[in-house]
Each structure stands twice: as C-alpha cells, then as structure tokens.
Write a structure and sequence with these properties.
Elements lengths: L1 E6 L3 H9 L4 E4 L7 H5 L6 E4 L7 E2 L3 H9 L3 H10 L5 E2 L4 E3 L4 H8 L6 E2 L4 E6 L3 E5 L2 E10 L14 H8 L4 E7 L3 E2 L14 E8 L2 E9 L3 E3 L1 H9 L5 E4 L21 H10 L12 H7 L5 E3 L3 E2 L7 E6 L16 E3 L7 E2 L4 H21 L3
Helix pairs in contact: 1-10
The chain binds flavin-adenine dinucleotide.
Flavin-adenine dinucleotide binds next to helix 1, helix 2 and helix 10.
C-alpha cells in the first residue's frame, strides 16, 4: 500500500508530487507525462502571469479559490521554477513563457520512474478501509488520493471525465461543465464572417460587463482569436458585442467608404454587403445608410454555440469549492483531495490556468501531508 495515489500526470499531479513528503504514486493513461503542458502556449507553455488578479478567474466561489491561489502565487511559482534551473521570460503582455520549449518545464516536473505508472487508465475509486483505485493495470490501495485528472477538453491529449465521475461517486456537486477559451460558431445572420476566414484584426469584444481588446480571427467555422477566447469564458448565452472600431473616423464625401476605414478592405466590403449598403462615395449615402455604418462601433450578435471541447483550451465548471476544505480536501470523504482544472476555477488566457494548477497542487500536497501526519 502507498500513502498517496495521484491521479493524472498533468501540471497539478506532477507538481503535487514535488511537494509531498508522503510517498506517492502517479497514475496516468498517456504514454508520457505532461501531454497538455507540451502543447500549451504554442509549445512554449505560458506558465503564469506577472499580473495575477481574481478578476481573471471564473469560479462559483472565487473568494475561496483566490485564498488558495494566494498561498502559492506567481512569485512563489517563478521562484521554484528558477531555483530548479529554468528562467521563464515575458513574451506577450505580462505572460511568462518557458525560454525555449515547454519540455523544459516538463523535465523539471519529471518524477522518478518508480513513482509513476504510465499507460494505466484510471477506471474508478472506492473507499474501504483505504482508497482502492482501479486501473487498466490492476488495483492500487492508498491512504489518500489526489484527483488531478483535469477537464474534458482536448481528449486527443488524454482528457477524460474520470475526475468528475469520481467526485460524483463521493457525493460531490459539479458546477455544470462548459467548453471555454474557445471560438464561437455562428447563426445564419453572421455567416458573412465565414467569407473572411484567415483575417485577423484588433477589436473590442464585450460580454456582459467584461471587455477584451485584442485580436479577433475570422475562421471557417466561426470567430476566434484571443479576444473571443477570453469572452467565451464569460459567455453563457445571448448576445456579445464587437466594436470593430472605437469610433467612426471623419469620412470624406467624395471618397469611397472602403478606402477610408482603417480596417481590412475585404472585411469592410463583406460588412457593407451584410448590412445592405453599397460600397460607394460617402456623399451618395442616405441618412439611414450612414447610421448603419455605426454598427462598426457596436455590432451585436448571439453566437450559436462554441467550437466545443475538441478545440476548447479549458473546461469551465467542475467540483465546487464549497464542498472542499481550505486544503482542497473533500468535506464528505476525508483523505480525498482535488487540484487543477477538475476544480471549479478557470482563468482567462495568459498563464492563469497553469498558475491555478500549480497553486492548487501545492495547497493539496500540504493538506495531504497534514492529513497523513507527515508535516
Ligand atoms: C492547446 C492548449 C493550450 C494551453 N495553453 C495554456 C497556456 O499556455 N497557459 C495556461 O495557463 N494554460 C494553458 N492551457 C490550459 C492548461 O493546459 C490546463 O489548464 C492545465 O493543463 C490543467 O492542469 P491539470 O493538471 O489540472 O490537468 P491536465 O494537465 O489536463 O492533466 C490531467 C492528466 O490526467 C490524465 N488523465 C485523465 N483521465 C485519465 C484517466 N482516466 N486515467 C489516467 N489518466 C488520466 C490526462 O492524460 C492528463 O495527463 C492550455 C490548454 C490547451 C488544451
């Protein structure tokens, strides 16, 4: 029997193993560790952000999640990474990336072979005197369990529902799961976006009270790009608004519209067609047509949905924090802990999700040692 079974060799599971004083064994169904880390941040892993604020996270219990995150924040994380020989660099805005490749971080997180089972699919967990974890390679008995199996997005790199199934088995409530950090699909009124596939431009995207000024990308299936991905974290249903321009420039009467707007010409032509306005000299526009041009500063539409879990960087929702203690231990079953994306705490783009995975793993590891009396 082992002290701790860690379910999942992703960011949270691997990091928890680094901090545990108790003996642990990691169970992973992929043939390699950290498969999502490897593909993250365009292969360089955006590990955290210089500006960590609760406003960048979505959770049904943000206050508690934030308290947990603060126990091992971005400074602590960067200190640990640097101490172990890697120096993340700021590339975009305030985002810290691995200097060369995400593999550098994976190597820092690599556990000894003896404490890892690869190609072992976790099938379930039950509680007898101890926890019994059933896997495709047989059963494992442990005094404590850390569920770090992530969300359900990107199944092609190993994501599965197992963490939520285990949580439900032990009576936990799951805040409904949704794909997030993902592009939007369109209603027929916006099918004109599809003609613009490949065009990327700056825009202001508003969803509820939140606003994201960043690139949007017209795609074959709909609309994507960083501003849209961030908006998707906050979108439930209903309309979002895009300001393609903050304000309309002064238009010269004798010149054609599409030559005067500081936007890609292909976009302007498709936009004009969609609102039924001909691309002509401004002097030839009627008052109603001129008014319609204002839609460029506030174009409202309701997405028909999202590109789904296959394309979503994260899964929003998860095991609710209300039923976990301050160390992420189940209030229903002592010895059962949760960390990472399986918990109801999801960040915007910018390294916030790895930060949560690492912070929550640290806190859970400390809690497990305390539970097992190995402080
Ligand atoms: C394309 C992409 C890019 C991203 N880029 C960034 C980024 O740059 N910065 C950022 O902050 N976030 C990024 N994210 C999000 C980030 O990867 C996740 O939030 C983070 O990996 C969550 O860590 P985790 O340990 O909770 O889960 P995961 O890293 O998903 O780890 C869970 C592990 O459990 C294993 N597992 C699942 N089910 C089973 C089972 N039944 N049996 C055995 N093993 C199982 C999985 O194979 C996996 O190894 C990105 C996500 C994607 C998809």
């Amino acid at each position: 029997m082992i002290d701790v079974a860690i379910l999942g060799a992703g960011a949270a599971g691997l990091f928890a193993a680094k901090w545990l004083k108790s003996s642990c064994h990691i169970i992973e169904h992929n043939p390699t560790i950290g498969a999502k880390i490897a593909i993250s941040g365009g292969g360089r892993c955006n590990v955290t952000n210089k500006e960590l604020t609760p406003g960048c996270y979505n959770s049904s219990d943000l206050k508690k999640a934030w308290q947990i995150l603060r126990r091992f924040d971005n400074r602590e994380l960067l200190r640990w990474i640097r101490k172990n020989g890697c120096s993340p660099v700021i590339r975009k805005k305030n985002q810290y990336f691995c200097p060369k490749s995400a593999k550098e971080l994976i190597e820092l997180l690599r556990p000894p072979n003896a404490s890892l089972s690869l190609c072992a699919k976790i099938e379930g967990v039950r509680k007898e005197d101890n926890f019994i974890i059933t896997t495709s390679q047989g059963a494992i008995e442990a005094k404590a369990v850390l569920v770090a199996t992530g969300g359900v997005s990107f199944k092609r790199v190993g994501a599965s529902e197992i963490g939520f199934t285990i949580a439900k088995h032990f009576g936990h409530t799951i805040r409904p799961l949704r794909p997030a950090l993902v592009g939007f699909t369109l209603q027929p009124q916006q099918f004109w976006f599809k003609e613009l596939s490949g065009i990327s431009m700056r825009a202001r995207v508003k969803v509820g009270k939140r606003e994201f000024y960043d690139d949007i990308l017209f795609a074959h299936r709909g609309i994507s790009g960083p501003a849209i991905l961030n908006a998707s974290l906050w979108w439930e249903r209903g309309a979002i608004e895009i300001a393609f321009l903050d304000s309309l420039p002064k238009l010269l009467p004798h010149k054609i519209i599409s030559t005067q707007l500081p936007l890609p010409k292909r976009f302007v032509k498709a936009f004009l067609k969609s609102i039924g306005v001909e691309d002509k000299k401004v002097s030839q526009l009627g008052a109603e047509e001129l008014e319609k041009l204002r839609l460029l500063t506030s174009y409202s539409f309701a997405p028909s949905g999202t590109f789904g879990y296959e394309r979503a960087e994260v899964t929003k929702g998860g095991v609710v924090l209300d039923e976990l203690d301050e160390n992420l231990q189940s209030r229903k079953t002592p010895g059962l802990f949760f960390a990472g994306e399986v918990v109801d705490m999801t960040g915007e783009l910018g390294g916030y999700n790895f930060q949560w995975a690492f912070s929550s793993a640290f806190v859970a590891a400390k809690g497990i040692d305390e539970y097992l009396g190995n402080r």
